[in-house]
């Protein structure tokens, strides 16, 4: 039997609502949670490694559903990466994966990476050769020629082929761009350049392989077209109108808002990376629509899964992009508990992994983070995150820095 670790004395947040477990004992064996309950009813077995957690609140590891570990954007920082080799990119992505995990993000969905490096990194993390979150990946971003991405295809046959290639490499999602993006220097965010035949075919091919499809999208016209063919998820949703939002609600389609990229907190980031003026202007003009769309989506009860489109650990207003994103959800109308769910059980459900991750219950992977105040009262408690366990291994423990696994 693998040794048991006991997290003792914390309050376990009731992520599904209800009363938290105070003075809790969380027993972890191997990669999984063995038992959870108040100390009066859960005994710490002899020989267990005891980690004192008094004064802490435990919640499931955070999940970030829109991440690019190899992110390059226009501007000076991006220009330095123009001649980056795949080997260099793999090492840079591994560093970003490690920093994401240490920021409390134990699962990510990668929504466009280069040349299959994401799948190599995922295998390296699974083998213990690199440190990082659990990875679900969409592989490369598939677009019609001239679209917002690099893997171009035209006509249903090519769309089928490139989608199947990504799935063969290990993609558990397919990502397409059905409109332009903020970072494009040509094309319009509102255009819908894919044909019905292309769009319906790629969604059918993915679904026949048990793979979901998400779309980078800022256009209502393109959104309605994709909804007709059973799209599973939209990224950003900058300019989505009421008709689109109602159909999303009716069809249970997911929204990954990445609201953090268009709001003022991100300007510090854009200045740091040396973004050109035209880019900052596009961000500002998009921000107002994006915010109004998010408020409406929350009011309508559309499925929201947290995603940032920035590195999960990217500094933002004194915290990380992941925490800033959750704070913005509360500002836009969620309760703190709903925002926590958007960062845990909702992404788990979206990924179809809700039996494995997203809750602190027996049988699930022991992906657990700790904060110093009740995050269901004030979402800003996430700013105090200082403990990260993934798969039963402690990667960060600021109170006891010695024995961590990193
Ligand atoms: Zn993105």
Automatic annotation (TrEMBL):
InterPro entries documented for this protein: Amidohydro-rel, Metal-dep_hydrolase_composite, Metal_Hydrolase, Metallo-dep_Hydrolase, OTAase-like
Q: Which residues form the Amidohydrolase-related domain?
A: 58-392
Keywords noted in UniProt: Hydrolase
Return one GO MF term.
hydrolase activity, acting on carbon-nitrogen (but not peptide) bonds
Q: Could you tell me the superkingdom of the organism this chain comes from?
A: Bacteria
Q: What is this protein called?
A: Amidohydrolase
Q: Which organism is it from?
A: Sphingomonas hengshuiensis
Q: What is the lineage of its organism?
A: Bacteria, Pseudomonadati, Pseudomonadota, Alphaproteobacteria, Sphingomonadales
């Amino acid at each position: 039997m693998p040794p048991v670790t006991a997290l003792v004395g914390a309050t376990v947040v009731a992520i599904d609502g209800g009363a938290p477990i105070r003075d809790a004992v969380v027993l972890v064996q191997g990669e999984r949670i063995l038992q959870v309950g108040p100390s009066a009813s859960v005994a710490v077995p002899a020989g267990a490694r005891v980690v004192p957690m008094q004064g802490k609140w435990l919640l499931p590891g955070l999940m970030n559903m829109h991440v690019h570990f190899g992110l390059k954007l226009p501007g000076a920082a991006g220009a330095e990466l123009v001649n980056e080799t795949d080997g260099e990119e793999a090492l840079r992505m591994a560093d970003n994966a490690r920093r994401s995990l240490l920021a409390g993000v134990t699962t990510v969905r990668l929504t466009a990476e280069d040349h299959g490096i994401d799948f190599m990194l995922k295998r390296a993390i699974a083998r213990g050769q690199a440190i990082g979150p659990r990875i679900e990946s969409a592989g490369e971003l598939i677009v019609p020629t001239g679209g917002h991405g690099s893997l171009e295809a035209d006509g249903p046959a090519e769309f089928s082929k490139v989608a199947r290639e990504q799935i063969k490499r290990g993609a558990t999602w397919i990502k397409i761009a059905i409109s332009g993006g903020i970072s494009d220097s040509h094309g319009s965010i509102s255009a819908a350049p894919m044909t019905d035949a292309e769009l319906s075919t790629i969604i059918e091919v993915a679904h026949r392989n048990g793979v979901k499809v998400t779309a980078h999208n800022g256009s209502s016209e393109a959104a309605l077209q994709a909804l007709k063919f059973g799209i599973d998820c939209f990224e950003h949703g900058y300019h989505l109108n009421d008709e689109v939002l109602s159909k999303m609600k009716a069809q249970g389609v997911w929204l990954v808002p990445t609201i953090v990229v268009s709001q003022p907190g991100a300007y510090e980031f854009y200045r740091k990376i040396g973004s050109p003026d035209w880019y900052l202007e596009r961000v500002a003009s998009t921000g107002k629509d994006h915010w109004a769309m998010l408020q409406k989506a929350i009011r309508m009860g559309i499925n929201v899964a947290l995603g940032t489109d920035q590195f999960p650990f990217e500094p933002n207003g004194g915290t990380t992009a992941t925490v800033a994103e959750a704070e913005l959800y509360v500002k836009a109308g969620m309760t703190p508990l709903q925002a926590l769910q958007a960062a845990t059980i909702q992404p788990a459900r979206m990924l179809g992994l809700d039996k494995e991750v997203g809750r602190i219950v027996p049988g699930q992977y022991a992906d657990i983070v700790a904060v110093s105040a009740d995050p269901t009262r004030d979402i800003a408690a996430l700013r105090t995150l200082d403990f990260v366990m993934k798969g039963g291994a402690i990667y960060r423990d600021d109170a006891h820095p010695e024995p961590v696994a990193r």
